[in-house]
Design a protein that fits this description.
403 residues; alpha/beta; seven-stranded parallel β-sheet
């Protein structure tokens, strides 16, 4: 089995539980995974041992940089020149600098451990670390690129260089994989793979129809622009004006919290909409079990950022909830209108609100869609199956031989 240095920006992270599931499953399948995290994540005993960038590590960066400047002066100069690219945002510039510093600090330690590959979970900071390790110690690496690292502010400024140097690349949606193939200059590229995330525990399908009384709506996700919560509140405002009885719960935290609280008050939705904040997944599950429908109003933000295929949609589908989603990025690869869920067009919010409510009055259609959606999760969103696919595609013996 391969031995992998798995590189994260922050691990474990509550909003990225899919990564934790994947690491646990990789280890269960016999892959030797050592986790490296640039920032300390949350406390979770199931994460196992994690090597974090601690205060003393920051102090060691300068002597390590001097060591590599003496040993690999040309490489350090080339990487420094590469970092002088024009960035779409200062954030992306900082991400790449962080990735460089992390790689410089741990390059000798990683070299001693003789990993088969390093693996970057994003193309930003982790991708830069993997790229630098490739240049400094000839450590082969694999790379993941999914949504914000490809699209936000024009995407990661160095992504083409990272794609070129990577042994193999994984994305979780075909729409993003096609963009990556274009960046590589080929419509078809055998080393760019579409491999979905996955759930470890998939509940048994249950026929669920909205009961009499208030319609319970659930949304889960960070409170950021690309989630489209402002439009979602306008849908709820339309229902309120029309006298429709409903209750909505939004789980998540983020920089838009105050703005959304203000808008809830402005629209008179205080008694109808509740912002819960972030919750552990075990508590989120109780809301999946009690809701009548799941609503995702994702959009493309002003920076170009967008979701690929949000894991929360698959989670809702696994709990037999009917899903209503906008047609953004990779959502339509899974949500086929009337078959596995329903596509919502937010250009006219009043029409969207009416369409959602009317659809919920059609029990046969709702049951068919939720049943098909649950089966899709069982077939294509099982973490055990998808991790086997990931291992075979990125790190199998044949892949190593090609490298």
């Amino acid at each position: 089995m391969p031995r992998i240095a798995y590189l994260f920006t922050s691990f474990p992270k509550l909003s990225e539980q899919f990564f934790l599931r994947e690491v646990i499953e990789l280890r269960a399948q016999g892959v030797q995974v050592d986790v490296y995290s640039m920032w300390r994540g949350g406390a979770d005993s199931s994460a196992g041992a994690v090597t974090h960038m601690l205060f003393l590590d920051w102090l060691r960066i300068l002597p390590e940089l001097f060591y590599w400047l003496c040993l690999r002066p040309l490489v350090i100069c080339q990487i420094s020149f590469l970092l002088c690219r024009r960035y779409g945002s200062w954030t992306n510039c900082g991400e790449n600098i962080l990735g460089l510093l992390f790689a410089v600090r741990f390059a000798r330690s990683i070299r001693r451990k003789n990993y088969d590959f390093s693996h970057a979970c994003w193309a930003t900071s982790p991708g830069m670390s993997a790229y630098v390790l490739r240049r400094l110690i000839e450590q082969k690496f694999t790379l993941e690129a999914h949504a914000y690292d490809v699209f936000r502010d024009g995407g990661d400024a160095l992504i083409k260089d990272k794609l070129t140097a990577a042994h193999a690349v994984r994305s979780s949606t075909e729409s993003t994989a096609q963009v990556l193939r274009t960046l590589k200059g080929a419509r078809e590229h055998p080393q760019i793979h579409t491999i979905r995330r996955g759930l470890g525990k998939i509940p048994v399908y249950q026929e669920r129809l909205a009961q009499k009384g208030a319609l319970h709506v659930l949304s889960v996700g960070r409170l950021i622009e690309k989630k489209g919560y402002s439009k979602e509140l306008e849908i709820f405002s339309t229902w309120l004006r029309q006298g429709i009885d409903f209750l909505a719960t939004i789980i998540g935290e983020g920089p838009m919290h105050r703005l959304l609280v203000a808008k809830i008050k402005e629209l008179g939705l205080e008694d109808r909409v509740t912002l819960i904040g972030k919750l552990p997944y075990t508590e989120v599950e109780t809301y999946y079990k009690s809701a009548d429908l799941f609503l995702f109003t994702g959009s493309i933000s002003k920076s170009g950022d967008r979701d690929g295929f949000p894991n929360v949609i698959a989670e809702a589908m696994s709990y037999s909830l009917p899903v209503f989603s906008t047609a953004v990025a990779g959502t339509t690869e899974v949500i086929r209108h009337g078959e596995t869920g329903y596509i919502v067009d937010l250009q006219d919010v009043d029409l969207a609100a009416a369409a959602i409510y009317e659809q919920m009055q059609m029990p046969e259609s709702i049951l068919t869609a939720s049943r098909n959606a649950h089966q899709w999760v069982r077939d294509f969103f099982n973490v055990s199956t998808n991790i086997k696919q990931l291992s075979n595609a990125l790190w199998c013996e044949n892949s190593r031989d090609q490298g």
